[in-house]
Amino acid sequence: MTALSGALADYLALRRALGFRLERAGKLLGQFAGFLEAQDAGVITIARAVAWARLPEKASPRWLAMRMSAVRGFAAYLHAIDPRHEVPPAGLFPDPGGRPVPYLYSGADITALMTAAGNLNGEQRRAAYRALVGLLAVSGIRIGEAIRLDDGDLDEDSGTLLVRQSKSGRPRIVPLHPTTIAEIRAYQRVRDRTRPLRRTDALFTTLTGARLNYPGTCTTFRRLVTLAGLPARPGARPTIHGLRHSMAVTTLLEWCRDGEDVRARIPQLSAMLGHSGPRDTYYYLHAAPELLALAGQRLEHYLEEPS
After folding, report:
1. Is 241 in the active site?
2. Alpha-carbon span 292 to 279, nearest angstrom
3. Per the residue annotation, which of 237, 241, 263, 265 is the catalytic one?
4. Looking at 48, 142, 148, 245, which residue is catalytic?
5. Which residues belong to CATH 1.10.443.10 in the chain?
6. Residues facing 163 on adjacent strands
7. Which of 1-5, 90-94, 203-207 is modeled with the greatest confidence?
8. Res 306 pLDDT > 50
9. For this structure, is 54 an active site residue?
10. N or C end of the chain: smaller count of CB under 10 Å?
């Protein structure tokens, strides 16, 4: 077995331990490894990945995207072990029928967004968007669920949030950190002081006291992105939906770092996100190279430990 084949076997074993079946990807990556070995190439480069992905004649854009997606995951894993391996950028062969590549926000990105909210017009608006961004970043709830929240859905005593109007139609309870609750309470005090006569029971409201609406919230968020100076990335642009995805990936990464049994805890994350089952969560976390990088680092550490 060559070094590349051995690395591929380790990668597939690791991903399958996380709950991914990788039946098609496993076959494709076996072919890709054979392609590299035939060229006596032990390092993945973007040029080699593109050359292999384009081998099928008259391949559909979706098939090209699928082949490159498989390579990209393997390359990200190897890059964490050996930086000589190049990771093809997301969206190099875009899938016309697939989901968009998610924009993953770092902790610094989220802090920058919350700080940028301080530049909006109106004290109540500044406080509202600071609290909203913080809530989305730590809870993983959808933006539509957030703007449908009422004051009574927040339970400070139990440290939880009741999401009554979810995408699935089933209510769920989401735990919140005390600092998040404190941020929301600070916003509520500003809101109630600036507009004591309220038009709605909504938690998040506009300057006129009405419930936030989806188009207006997305427009303001794009303004925050500009103020925070967050750049677009290959195949991905910063959107408000990326906060949800980032929370899910961050949670999974923390579990990996803590040595948790990720597969056993996925149902818990599914419940927090409001997914109908773990299968949706696996798909949702699929495009996270940070997870593969951490997994690769953990495997490298494990291999270095004396037996």
Report:
1. yes
2. 19
3. 241
4. 142
5. 102-278
6. 172
7. 203-207
8. no
9. no
10. C
